[in-house]
Specification:
Strand content: 15-25%
Shape: rod-shaped
Oligomer: single chain
Radius of gyration: 69 Å
Distance between the termini: 197 Å
CATH architecture of one domain: 2-Layer Sandwich
CATH class of one domain: Alpha Beta
Length: 360
């Protein structure tokens, strides 16, 4: 007589129960039921190895059957220092020593739930109610194992949230290894506040202040170093600019000087070549003038120089000024030809004008 009776109306169920002597047993929306057969007639006595689904009503004969339920919701076990909060009215936080010997108290929150499939096992071997399960198993184990796990931390590591989270994850893993066979699934392990011995806390605070002052001094030192390095870099940059500018000016001046030197050298070579050519020409001309034709060439040059230029000769005769116009070009031609004939041993005939001028 089980779940099939749930489809009947309440009146029919009550009438059937009255006739059969059965009694209704129900489970809540989040509860799982476990039936225990006290007196076995058609079956062996003991805990029935199947859980009854939540949110249903089942009919059993009383006195020879027993009924238990377990809540399968997530349940929270909070162990904290604060009185009136958590699993106990008084102080309930975990007390342990760190691996380096300092006393520590830690607030821990454990969330867990009952495995519905193992509800019959819980009833048979662990507890008969949720409260008994919480007190006799869950609380005992969750206060013991986390102490050992969090006690593996050094004092300095407790200040680091990541280190505490790692140990909390490890605690969850260990608790599940212990509690899963008993039908308990640990969903999460969380840490809240932690506290040291008052004297040690005072020492820690003093150390924090000293560390902060030391860090401040280090920061100021680093800032001064950075500022000095920045100024050094700026000075080096300025020096490099000056050096680069001086190098550039030097190279430019050197290039200009080299170019000017090359130019002047080429000019000097040209002047020297020209002077040498002119000297050779003068030498050759001197040699030519020193020969027989030099005098004739000289006269020709003089004639060429005087050609086309008017020349006036003012002869003085008989105590008076006799102004005559003389054709100098003709005169020069005459004397030039006469000189040539004289050198050759011949005398050219005189012109009428010359004859008249030679008369006394």
């Amino acid at each position: 007589m089980g779940g099939s009776l749930r489809r009947l109306s309440p009146f029919c169920l009550a009438a059937l129960a009255a006739l059969s002597g059965c009694y209704p047993y129900s489970t809540g929306p989040t509860e799982v039921g476990v039936r225990t057969v006290k007196l076995g007639i058609l079956r062996s006595p003991g805990v029935e190895q199947r859980p009854y689904e939540p949110g249903a009503t089942y009919w059993f004969v009383p006195f020879i059957n027993d009924w238990h339920t377990f809540d399968t919701r997530i349940q929270v076990l909070e162990m904290t220092l604060q009185a009136g909060k958590g699993d106990r009215q008084g102080r309930d936080d975990l007390l342990f020593k760190t691996i380096d010997g300092n006393d520590l108290s830690l607030d821990v929150i454990i969330s867990y739930r009952v495995d519905p499939a193992k509800a019959p096992h819980i009833l048979a071997f662990v507890a008969k109610s949720d409260q008994e399960l919480r007190e006799s198993l869950v609380r005992t184990v969750t206060r013991s194992s986390p102490r050992d796990i969090f006690g593996e931390l050094r004092t300095e590591q407790l200040y680091v949230a990541e280190e505490r989270a790692k140990k909390a994850a490890r605690a969850k893993e260990v608790l599940n290894q212990i509690l899963n066979p008993y039908g308990i699934i640990v969903e999460n392990v969380l840490t809240k506040d932690y506290r040291f011995n008052p004297a040690y806390e005072k020492a820690i605070e003093d150390r924090k202040v000293a560390d902060q002052l030391a860090e401040k001094a280090k920061s100021e030192t680093r800032a001064a170093q950075e500022e000095w390095l920045q100024k050094l870099q700026e000075a080096m940059g300025e020096v490099n600019q000056v050096v680069a500018r001086a190098d550039g000016e030097y190279l430019q001046a050197k290039i200009e000087a080299d170019a000017y030197y090359d130019q002047q050298e080429m000019i000097a070579k040209a002047i020297r070549a020209e002077a040498q050519a002119e000297a050779r020409g003068l030498g050759q001309m001197t040699q030519a003038l020193a020969g027989k034709g030099g005098e004739t060439l000289l006269k020709l040059k003089v004639a060429e120089a005087l050609q086309g230029k008017p020349i006036v000769i003012l002869p003085v005769s008989g105590g008076g000024l006799d102004l005559k116009t003389t054709d100098i070009n003709r005169l020069l031609e005459l004397y030039g030809l006469r000189g040539i004939s004289t050198r050759n041993g011949q005398e050219l005939p005189k012109s009428p004008a010359q004859g008249q001028q030679e008369k006394p």
